Amino acid sequence: MTDIAQPSHTGASAMPKKRSRLHNLAANKSLWRGITAIAVFLVIWEIGARWDEWFGKEWMIPGIGLIPPPSDVFEVWLTVLPKPGYWNSWYQSLARVLSGFLSAMIIGIPFGLALAVNKYFRDIFFPPFEILRPIPPLAWVPASLIFWPTNEMSIAFVTFLGAFFTIVINVVGGARTIDVRYLRAAQSMGASQWDLFSKIILPGTLPSIFTGAAVGMGITWEVVLAAEMISGGGTQGGGGLGFFIWNSYMGGSLEQIVVGMISIGIAGYLCSSAIRMLGDWFMPWRRLF
Amino acid sequence: MAQDTLSHVKETTASRAGQSKVEFRHVSKAYGEEWDLEPVIENLSVDVLPGELTVIVGPSGCGKSTLVNLIAGFEKPDSGKILLDDSLVTGPARDRMVVFQESALIPWQTTYENIVFGPKLRGDLKGKALRAEAEHLLVKVGLSEFKNKYPLQLSGGMQRRAELARALINNPRIMIMDEPFRGLDAMSRGLMQEFFLRLFEENRRTNLFVTSEIDEAIFLADRIVVLSNRPAQVREVIEVNLPRPRDYKMLNSPEAYEIKREAMAILHEEAMKSFKSGSGADFAETYGKAGN
Predict the structure, then answer these.
(1) What is the structure's pLDDT at B72?
(2) Chain A, nearest residue to B92 by Cα
């Protein structure tokens, strides 16, 4: 307060925007809590898994004692990391997830909006949609294996279904619960039907679209992994992280199974983070300050 | 549909601000299926006089909001007609602007975008002229500093003021206020009432104001229309002859007290009727809080 020109600690902290990104990241308490939580989790896991090693077989903790400790998993991971096969599994699973997910978005969003907006469309297409929706995606596997010419295409189709129904039902729900006063206010001000759709209904449905996308992304991963385990290895519709885990199981490498599981966890986290970031970017009005 | 009436509306609103009137002629409205109709408004006739602030009060659930929807054109009466300056109301249009209960600012538009929404939709006010008008209104409602904030980032009182500006930029013939200050804390509510009153007294644009608060009604109104229990009919029209410009102290004057006594007696009677007719919820809502 006394001398503005003099640079000081208080001056720096009064202008948080001037700090570097890294500085901000280091000061982020949520981030540190998250890192600490993961570290504590790993330590407990390590101790639990090694208990019998240290105190004798009779002290083995049920469950956790059978799981390989994280340090062993990490070691195996290091040996797997340079192998192109491991990265190829990542690539195959990611490619399947993204193709299924994106096609579900591209078809699902307009379909859902049409269901929400047009009564005739809804009367015709909603009943069959509602009958197909409860069928679990995996129940489609045998039929699609027969119907589609290649394994890869049937996997793509089944992943598409996994995300499609969730996205559509969210879009319909979101579009139909838009506050009627927004529509009325716009109508009073002279909005055309197209204005109502593009300026009220579409942006008003965005939050539900992103909710549907987040849930749909999760389902897509489930479906892809399960499909990969069913279809096995090979070039046609095989490989991927699902097969990686299955293969490790067949080969009896517990550590490698866990490596596969954590890889899926990381991949899923990256995908949902991407959706969250896109959501923040598309919907600035949802940020409070 | 709305486009072809625009040029006509634009001319008339500019010249006739504060001179427009609304007439309800034997208006009835019912909800529900054909075999189970629930009449909400029955044979209601009332006038909203030019340049006056007409306040509608009535027991909660009596059909006040339905009345708003009818005059705004969001809904159509089953019978009877509603006339704005002698022409039939057929649908929503910019000559009747509604300020809604709670806030109906569009959440994905900033304060500024909300305010210019109407003119931009119609394209009747553009570029520099639009910006100047919007800035003028922003200053008027004290939100210049907040023009790039989203509604979620504004306080309740700010949201109401932004909504007033959003309505005013359309230069409506009449303003329809549907319990606009409901949900505000007592302090902001008092401030908003005073602010709104100054705004009204500036050019006396014909105003239909719906509320369930009798003090608010007396403070603001030229005339208070007391509605009956559902189905709504006009029970009483009370002239409020308190001088303008008004301030809050006038609520303690003997005239104000006399009006309050009269209105409360009618409202109490109507609420008791709804209590006896079985919809006790209405009674509890209206008098439960006051009774404690």
Answers:
(1) 92
(2) A188
Q: Cβ B153–A288 below 8 Å, yes or no? A: yes
Chain B residue with Cα closest to A206: B108
> What tokens does A128 get?
């069959």
For chain A, which residues make up each domain, given as ranges?
22-67, 77-286
At A132 the pLDDT is 93
Alpha carbon distance B200, B241 (integer Å): 16
Q: Residue B110 is which amino acid?
A: T
Choose the closest CB to B117 out of A189, A203, A206.
A189
What is the C-alpha to C-alpha distance for residues B85 and B226, in angstroms, rounded to an integer?
A: 23
Which residues in chain B have their CB less than 8 angstroms from residue A200's CB?
106
- The DSSP string of B53-83 is EEEEE-STTSSHHHHHHHHHTSS--SEEEEE
pLDDT reading at A158 higher than 50: yes
Which pTM does this prediction carry? Answer: 0.79
**For chain B, which residues score pLDDT lower than 70?**
1-17, 276-292
List, for residues A78-109, the tens digit of each pLDDT value: 998 888 888 888 998 999 999 999 999 999 99
- CB of B170 less than 8 A from some CB of A: yes
Cα B218 to its chain centre, rounded Å, is 15
| Mean pLDDT confidence for A150-162 | 87
Kindly list the domain boundaries of chain B, sorted by start residue.
3-95+175-291, 107-171
To the nearest whole Å, the CA of B36 is away from the closest chain A CA by 24
Cis geometry, peptide bond prior to residue A207 (ω within 30 degrees of 0): no
CATH of domain B3-95+175-291: 3.40.50.300
Query: What are B270's two structure tokens?
Result: 């109507």
Q: How far is B201 from chain A (nearest CA, A)?
A: 24
State the burial class of residue B148 (Cβ atoms within 10 Å of its Cβ: 0-12, 13-18, 19+). Answer: exposed
Contact B163, B101 (CB under 8 A): no
Cα A214 to chain centroid, rounded: 6
| Cα dist from B233 to B32, B64, B109, B178, B217, whole Å | 19, 10, 39, 18, 18
Inter-CA distances, B62 with A61, A209, B215, B273, Å: 68, 38, 19, 12
Chain A: nearest CA to B251, how far in angstroms?
A: 33
Which class does domain A77-286 fall in? mainly alpha
Q: Minimal Cα distance from B100: which residue of A?
A: A181
DSSP B93-128: -TTEEEEPSS----TTS-HHHHHTHHHHHHTSS-HH
Closest CA to A163 of A207, A103, A210: A103
pLDDT in tens, B186-196: 888 988 999 99
- Give me the pLDDT at residue B73, please: 92
Cα B142–chain centre separation: 21
Percent of chain A with pLDDT over 70: 90
